[in-house]
Amino acid sequence: MPCYCYILYSSTLNKYYVGSTTDMILRLADHNREKEKFTKTGCPWELVYKEEFVDLKYARERERNIKKQKSGKYIESLMSSSG
User: Fold this and answer.
1) Span 15-60, pLDDT tens digits
2) Whose CA, among 8, 11, 30, 45, lies 20 to 30 Å from 76?
């Protein structure tokens, strides 16, 4: 089963959210149903980037790596390079 590291964008907050999951469709729906503590104020969230992995361990490692950058410019560079 594929796993994902993903980036969401909230135009309401003008912020990005980085996460990982085994079910991208359900996870995005949960964020937009205001079920998640850290994202409920930013609805609607839009999926702007994702990377696929064979194991959730690797997706979470990538999530941590992206978060360590603490940079919207880094996130935007990821999105532009995937185009």
Assistant:
1) 999 999 999 999 999 999 988 888 989 999 999 999 999 999 999 9
2) 30
Rg (alpha carbons) of the chain, rounded to whole number: 12
- The span from the CA of 25 to the CA of 29, in Å, is 6
Which H or E element spans position 18? Answer: strand 15-21
Q: What are residue 19's DSSP bridge partners?
A: 6
Confidence at 83, pLDDT banded by 50, 70, 90: low
3-state secondary structure 36-70: CCCCHHHCCEEEEEEEEECCHHHHHHHHHHHHHHC
